[in-house]
Fold this protein.
Amino acid sequence: MENKYESLRETLRQRAKREFAPGAKFPTQRALMAEYGVSLATVDRALRELVAEGILMRSQGRGTFVREETELRKPAGNQIALLLARNVTCNAHAFYAEILFEINDRLSAAGCSFAYFYTDESGTPRELVRHLTDGGRFRGAILINRIPEELAVELKRVGLPFVVVDNRIESPGVCCVTGENEAGAAAMVEYLIARGHRRIGFVSTPLQTTFLERYIGYCNTLLAHGIAVDNAIVQRFFRYEEAERDLAKLLDCAEPPTAIFAANDTMGAAVYRVLRKRGLHIPGDISVAGFDGDYVGTQCVPRLTTVEVPRREMGRAAASALLRQIAGEKVESIVLPLKLIERESVFALT
């Protein structure tokens, strides 16, 4: 279904540009269904996105038309706001760079331009939304990561289409694009237990719902195996600038962990630095696992075993979901499957 829809959309995009004069009437949905042998849903979705991109326009009761050239040249109302939290994205640049690349690539192809806003530097949520809606410049917004829930509430209130990426906001009608964080963490803990580890430490920050979901997966999997969650080897308030001090809680306890599971690969790399400073070898003395599957883990020596988040797919899904909303389509949240990547940082005790 997805391949058919994407192929049809690109075919119709080229036809609109090459075969039809500006203002010309475009074939009906029924004609396109018969010509290409696809379903009504596939045709409708392709047309909606081309309308959102400004290639086509729909007139109620008259049909679909190729947009006039004068309309195509209009710059107003063609911007997308990309809203990020600076203090989160700077610490996870490797992860978000690929997501943002795909978002930019897909939305640029749709004729959109971008403006970046750091939510922790742009005033209150209401002030930021007022700025986005003044003058009608922005067609929609993409909210990256740790975004105040009040911001989503304000965007819903004013009716500006938006998508939340790598964060879950429990509010009806909000489209969130996330990974299966709980299941991914569970898979990693299962992997460690299968290799004889029962003292498994966990390191994260309290900033993100994604980390909370990973922590829940960690806890539930331990409990399912009859292993108590020991807070002595859990550090949920990890700070990069205080990595040595924050990890001392785990490493200096009466029964230190045989493995440490970091909530992302950047934290995993910080764990490596602290362990090396203590003269500990990975994985001979202690095993380390991460999450995200970005390039940081591949630069660790030994390379970090991790759970891979499909970042490019996440960016494409977010851009597509936003275009569909702009075209008037109702869009459900998207949860992407994750994949465990086995490398060299985990030692089998059994």
